[in-house]
Design brief:
46% of the residues lie in helices and 11% in strands. Strand 11 and strand 12 form a beta hairpin. Helix 6 runs antiparallel to helix 7, helix 11 packs across helix 13 and helix 12 runs antiparallel to helix 13.
């Protein structure tokens, strides 16, 4: 029986190495018989229903079964653990029950193996520490300069109507080339961009084998192209002795014993982090621009804050850059970005795999079971937010944030797997807004409300139709 309490109890099975691969040790169906839920259609389960509208599916299941339920999709059973308390248990993971590597494995192991998100415990800790050098103040200050220059160059020509999503996607890729890799893409830009797009789309492809003409085949081919590209570049960076760009920092990063990361691991980390920075920042910036266009009063407040800090456009009418040292002063801008991330989290849900038996909400979940938390639902639950579908950055004043459950807002994850590049994301979005709002008003047609594709990373299906009007 389910109870109101949410406690965690575990068996004495060791937390490390119980399953060597996510496909091993899957519990029998009858081991989940006591958990409410349903299998859906024969063979495919709820796969297509979840792909069509995952948020509606989640609401329907919670209304039927409560905040712990099972469903079948993508070839297996998943147990959903819903709410801020579940987020804390899974993400903080104090008892090392949950594997991120084996949770993401069915989705990403053919596409982004050995990315930082697909590591656990000691291996994750060692590589995260080695890679964190790329996000220290020195390199971040360097990225800041590159972002100011690159964004100013592109945004200067944005006057008029456009589809924002593909425009910011191209800009984000160009910025990643300069800040992350320290090069101009040149003629390889289209191939690299296509490879990343194909890999992300393959992550939720119903057909999981790389058969000819399938999304998975395109994704696997995209990975092969990028592995070759980044392998060659890693050797070049090591021969050159490093540099200030992120890739050079990764290529020359060392573990605690002073050893360099293996080349193939550098490649996998770079592949994953480029994808994460490219697609998640694109999604987040798009949702923020949409909500500022729909809420012009907030657009005006943020513009006023930016002008007060930068001094506004220079004598020639060109926006002044936002210095690295002033990033922390943009308090309203950061609150608006946090609210956009609440409204449209770039990673709507997160999978894990239970390495040991545990209990939550009165239900015993067996070792080996795939489980998942739902970030989007928590971000829109009246359990934690007043009028949750209304854009209101004032939710993120220090007092209100302190009073709220710590895991009610988790767009960057939490615990040991908190997004390594979250400060880079804040920096890029703040610099983007500083350039945009010093010279444009962002406008959408009255009543405009685009339909959003929810998975795997949210994006507006029509590209987000906006107009930038010169001030």
């Amino acid at each position: 029986m389910a109870t109101a309490a949410s406690t965690t109890k575990t068996s004495n099975v060791p937390e490390h190495g119980r399953f060597s691969h996510w496909s091993e040790g899957i519990p029998a169906t009858d081991a989940l018989a006591h958990i409410p839920g349903e299998a859906g259609l024969p063979l495919v389960g709820h796969t297509f229903k979840q792909l069509a509208d995952p948020h509606a599916f989640t609401r329907e299941m919670i209304e039927k079964y409560g905040k712990v339920y099972k469903s079948k999709a993508f070839g297996g059973w998943n147990v959903a653990l819903i709410g801020a308390e579940a987020n804390e248990m899974v993400l903080f993971n104090k008892d090392k029950i949950f594997s991120s590597e084996q949770g993401w494995g069915p989705v990403l192991d053919q596409l982004f193996p050995r990315g930082l998100m697909l590591m656990d415990f000691d291996h994750h800790r060692m590589d995260r520490r080695a890679l964190s050098i790329a996000f220290k103040p020195g390199p971040m200050r360097h990225y800041s300069g590159a972002l100011n220059t690159g964004i100013a160059r592109e945004v200067a020509d944005w006057e008029g109507r456009m589809e924002f999503y593909p425009t910011i996607k191209k800009l984000t890729l160009d910025l990643a080339a300069e800040s992350f890799i320290g090069i101009d893409w040149g003629p390889e830009a289209d191939k690299i961009n296509t490879a990343f797009v194909d890999m992300v789309q393959a992550s939720v492809a119903p057909i999981r084998s790389p058969l000819p003409f399938t999304k998975m085949k395109r994704g696997v081919d995209g990975r092969a192209f990028l592995v070759d590209y980044f392998t060659q570049e890693t050797h070049k960076r090591r021969e050159a002795g490093g540099g200030q760009d992120m890739f050079s920092q990764f290529a020359t990063a060392t573990r605690e014993d002073g050893s360099l990361l293996p080349v193939d691991e550098v490649v996998d980390h770079m592949n994953f982090l480029m994808m994460a920075a490219h697609d998640t920042i694109t999604s987040s910036a798009t949702s923020l621009i949409y909500y500022l266009a729909k809420n012009p009063q907030w657009q005006a407040k943020i513009r006023e804050e930016i002008v007060a800090i930068t001094g506004g456009p220079d004598a020639s009418g060109n926006p002044r850059p936002l210095s690295y040292d002033d990033l922390g002063r943009l308090e309203l801008t950061e609150m608006a970005f946090k609210e956009a991330l609440r409204m449209m989290p770039p990673v709507p849900s997160m999978p894990r795999r239970a390495l040991r038996d545990f209990e939550y909400g009165g239900y015993r979940i067996p070792a080996g079971q795939m489980v998942g938390i739902n970030i989007y639902w928590t971000h829109h639950s009246e359990d934690y937010w007043d009028n949750p579908f209304t854009f209101d950055p004032m939710r993120f004043t220090p007092d209100k944030a302190k009073a709220r459950h710590k895991y009610a807002w988790v767009p960057f994850g939490g615990g040991a797997h908190m997004c390594l590049g979250l400060h880079f994301a804040y920096m890029q979005v703040k610099i983007l807004l500083a350039q945009l709002l010093q010279q444009y008003e962002i406008v959408v047609e009255e009543g405009y409300a685009p339909d959003w594709k929810a998975w795997p990373i949210p994006q507006p299906k029509d590209g987000l139709k906006v107009e930038f009007k010169k001030l």
